[in-house]
Every structure is written in structure tokens, then in C-alpha cells.
Amino acid sequence: MKRCSWVSNDALYIKYHDEEWGKxxxxxAVLFEFLLLESFQAGLSxxxxxxxxxxxxxxxxxxxxxxxxxxxxxxxxELLLNEGIIRHRGKIEAAINNANLFQDIQIExxxxxxxxxxxxxxxxxxxxxxxxxxxxxxxxLSDQIAKDLKxxxxxxxxxxxxxxxxxxxxxxxDHVSDCFCFKKE
Length: 185
Hints:
With 185 residues, this protein is mainly alpha-helical. It has one domain: Hypothetical protein, domain 2 (Endonuclease III, domain 1), CATH 1.10.340.30. Helices cover 54% and strands 2% of the residues.
């Protein structure tokens, strides 16, 4: 099977590419999981985050944004000692901040999914890139979403991170055109 060239022969990466990456996500809990993971990925490789995903799940209460929003400084210090995750104070504090703001968006729009998918009129953007080097690190749309998130107070959600998030949750389909996951619809 032909896959996107960024996929190594690591079984975890293959499973992620084949079963998750680029598939549209509408569930707020899953959207928050990816939001948190992508914010920790900033400056690192995705495979690093993927290999630590279960550790993140355990450390961050199964990505329960309601619980995370209530974390205090004691919990931050505990997380900073957890060798199974990325121990970056700014990113940990951003996760707590973003969990609170995530809930604000849910109140305003009925769900985070409603907010996010409105940027693409509820339909994934289908790109048809031929090679990985054709895929941009960010787009006007990721700039727009990142700007709105920043205005709302989100941290570690710049345009490049937002674009990676958009790819992961299927807002955009960036499987290269000869990948078996590419859909022409």
C-alpha cells in the first residue's frame, strides 16, 4: 500500500496514519485531545508525541478538559516531574488555560466542533498535493483560526500548530494524491 511519505515503518506511525490522521473528527473530547497533543508537539516531531500519547492520557486525566481546567500549581509541579510526557511548564500551563477557553467556546457555539467546522462550512478542505514537499506548513485558513484562538487567549496555538491540528482532525485532507487514504470527494 502506498502511504504519505512522512510515515516511517514504525507500526505506531502506520496505525496513526491509516486509522486516524485526516479523518474528520466532530467529537469535542477527541478534538481537545488533539488540541492538547499538538500544542505539546510544537518544536518536536509528531512521532515523539505519538510515542508518549498514552503517558499524556494518563497524566492528563484521559484528556478530560473539565478536569484539566481545574488543575492547580501543585498539579503543574507534579506534571513537571512526569518523565513520560513533555515537561515544559509553558505548555503544561497552556493546556490548563486552553481547557478553560475550550469550554468558553463550547458555551458560545454549542460545541467546539461547531466552532471549528464553521471555518470550513462543515466540509473538509480536500487538497491534492503530489508530494510531501508540496504540503505547506500553514495556510491562510490556519492563520485565520490561529488568530481567532489567540484573540480568545489560547496559547501554543500558532498557525503552524493549528495547521497540523487541522490535518490531524480532518479539517483538511492532506494525504498526498497517491496515498491509499486520499479521497477524491
